[in-house]
Amino acid sequence: MDEGARVELAGGGWIRLIEGAFDAHEARMAALLEELPLCVEEVVVFGRRHPTPRRTSWHGDPECAYAYSGRRFEPAPWTPELARIRDRLEDLEGVRFNSVLANHYRDGRDAMGAHADDEPELGPSRDDVRIASVSLGAPRRFVLRHRETKETLALSLGEGSLLVMGGALQRSWVHGVPRTRRPVGPRLNLTFRVVVPRLTIRRPCSTS
Ligand SMILES: O=C(O)CCC(=O)C(=O)O
After folding, report:
1. Is residue 179 assigned to a domain?
2. Which residue has a Cα nearest atom 10 of ligand 1?
């Protein structure tokens, strides 16, 4: 894959990987690990509660609540380092991301199962969802799989890298970070998103 080039994928989605988009990654990761209220959340899968195999925290503008895996998360405020990265992404991408999910993988046992970021909060259409994923710390394998053809694409997301996913990728492909038996150090991943705040439905006033 050409550094920084946009790669079109089957089904109308695309990805772009920029290695080393963010410098000073060790200091950034240390600052973020201090600032973020990371914790192991319980999610509901097939009616059963499970602890997530990683630590997470959800941040954003006040109206950016987000629901996934049977839970609804209210956003914690932007921290100084998250806001710096968000502002840099706005310069790079021309998109004002209003929320971010932080995922802390403590070692190779921490992982994220195959899924698509296709929650209704990301807009009415799954054909144009932009996600900017910033990785700090140990490189991990990131695997994309086409829902129908099962074609797979594996990337290594190294420290300071930026992976942008766009178009209809979330409709046609799933992605995840598999467990590994290799000894790997901690990694912090930040997936910046644009949440469309829920519309307030106003009932017409009674005229009688
Ligand atoms: O850690 C990663 O690179 C993936 C994170 C992810 O898929 C997500 O936050 O939805």
Report:
1. yes
2. 117
> 88-97, pLDDT tens digit by residue?
999 999 999 9
Q: How far is the CA of 48 from the centre of ligand 1 (A)?
A: 22
The CATH number given to whatever domain includes residue 76 is: 2.60.120.590
Q: Are strands 71-73 and 48-51 parallel, antiparallel or unpaired?
A: unpaired
> How do residues 17-73 score in pLDDT, each as one tens digit?
999 999 998 999 999 999 999 999 988 888 888 899 999 999 999 999 988 777 888
Ligand 1, CB within 6 Å, residue ranges:
101, 103, 112, 117, 133, 142, 157, 175, 177, 189, 191
Residue with the smallest CA separation from ligand 1 atom 3 is 189
Range of the domain at 21: 6-193
Number of domains in the chain: 1
- Considering the entire predicted model, what is its pTM? 0.92
Q: Which residues of 165-197 are buried (b: 16+ CB within 10 A; e: fewer)?
A: bbbbbbbbbbbbbebeeeebeebbbbbbbbbee
